[in-house]
Amino acid sequence: MRFGIKSLALIAATTLMAPMAFADSHLGEGDPEKGEKTWKKCKACHKIGEGAKHSTGPMLNDVIGRTAGAAEGYKFGKDLIAAGEAGLVWDAALIADYVENPKKFLQAYLDDSGAKSKMSLKVKKEADRLNVAAYVATFSEAPVVEETEETEDATSD
């Protein structure tokens, strides 16, 4: 495959900028500072930050990129574990969807009207959901952007 100088420049620029573009993408669309206020409702059951441990709910450090129902040392409900086994991996958008109505989220995800969640709190306002998800995401490392063979081939020509 032949690339012109403009194509190579575009490929190089895109490759160099990709990590910057994804650096904060794990935060979602919300405002973490505003989410800290909404977090006050969550902290009765969930812990986050330095020294956080499981409580009534699982500790949420590094939840972004984690398979649902898979935090070591916490006993999750069977339906959240099933969602993880079916491929549910948390990101800020999914957390925002989940906290709207955890039971309905699992029912829809698993296509099972009998699915349940151990979490009873519902965050009704969309802005609050997006903000708290962005706040929680600040306690996770940004996802690593891995190079694919296609990327390597394009940049090595």
Explain what you see.
This protein has 157 residues and is mostly helical. It folds into two domains: 38 residues, no CATH class; 115 residues, Cytochrome Bc1 Complex, Chain D, domain 2 (Orthogonal Bundle), CATH 1.10.760. The chain is 48% helix and 0% strand. The protein has seven helices and no strands. It is globular and about 35 Å long. The N and C termini lie close together (9 Å). About 12% of the residues have low confidence.
User: β content, as a range?
Assistant: under 5%
For the largest beta-sheet, the strand count, sense and barrel status come to:
none
CATH superfamily grouping of the largest domain: Cytochrome c-like domain
- Report the top-level CATH class of the largest domain: Mainly Alpha
**DSSP strand tally:** 0
The stretches of 5 or more residues where confidence is low (pLDDT under 50) are 7-25
Helix-and-strand structural type: mainly alpha
Helical content (DSSP H or I, runs of 4+): 40-55%
**How many helices does DSSP assign?**
7
